[in-house]
Write a structure and sequence with these properties.
56% of the residues lie in helices and 0% in strands. The protein contains 4 helices and no strands. The chain is mainly alpha-helical.
Length: 101
């Protein structure tokens, strides 16, 4: 039997539970999944997936021209005029769901 090393990490309990449910359905113990992840890091010489900001990322107004800012503000005004609105409570609930806050 090969030697093993212990890995201690802190993760959100809900995240751990969700991932372990999926791994269990696949018949893969969490320790095997972590070994596979580490092996892929070595093979890829980096993370085995792309890291990208979502397309709906918040705009950085510091890097925008006045015309670009005006255009973004006008989009918001047009949405309001066209009834594309929702209560703040629903908007925040959607954000929490999308970003698992």
């Amino acid at each position: 039997m090969s030697k093993t090393a212990n890995l201690y990490v802190r993760i959100e309990p809900d995240l751990k539970e969700q991932a372990e449910q999926i791994l269990s359905a696949l018949g893969i113990p969490a320790s095997n999944a972590i070994n596979m992840f580490y092996k892929q890091i070595i093979l890829q010489r980096g993370l085995p997936f792309d890291l990208k900001l979502p397309e709906t990322a918040v705009h950085n107004f510091n890097n925008m021209t006045e015309q670009e800012i005006d255009s973004e503000l006008q989009k918001g005004i047009d949405d309001i005029k066209n009834g594309k609105v929702k209560p703040a409570k629903q908007a925040f609930a959607d954000i929490r769901k999308d970003y698992k806050l």
